[in-house]
Amino acid sequence: GENVGLHLPTLSVQEGDNSIINCAYSNSASDYFIWYKQESGKGPQFIIDIRSNMDKRQGQRVTVLLNKTVKHLSLQIAATQPGDSAVYFCAEGVGYSTLTFGKGTMLLVSP
Amino acid sequence: DAGVIQSPRHEVTEMGQEVTLRCKPISGHNSLFWYRQTMMRGLELLIYFNNNVPIDDSGMPEDRFSAKMPNASFSTLKIQPSEPRDSAVYFCASSPRGQGVNEQYFGPGTRLTVT
To answer: Are B101 and A32 a contacting pair at CB < 8 A?
Structure first.
């Protein structure tokens, strides 16, 4: 979803659950997508990226899924831990452009 | 690798004063980006450099903002004169390749408060 003003969409999960964070991107020509994690008081941290010639990419405990038909990107976090609590941003890019960032989703993990 | 280094981490200044933010990108990275983050507007790209040359400064809000990259290991973002609405967290990021869009690595940010 999209945040409006001060309100970020929030996903609350229990420790050990799997988390899915969704992102609708805007440019059908975008060919590069990336997820960042931002903890309070820190800069965004690269998690995983994917190019448009793929529809799935896996990392350590994370999976990114890309559905170009509906312009949708998701980040799946397996066995979510309290340390995963942060704001997660998706970003898109095309060709030689820079990244365009979404507004972010807050993930809250309860022990 | 030390990552992207920014200084100062916090800056409090009075309206009308000049503010200079500094950034050292990751060694070997070709591109450098300056962003501003606020709760209301999220993460906004201000300007980016490729091989020390400014490529796109369309995100710079006003003439009060200027950025330079005199060499591959140093960049500055200057606000003169500063205004309360400039209060935000300013991030510098660098990217390993200059051709095409790729992952960017962010610094810890400078939290600017203009009173």
So the answer is: yes
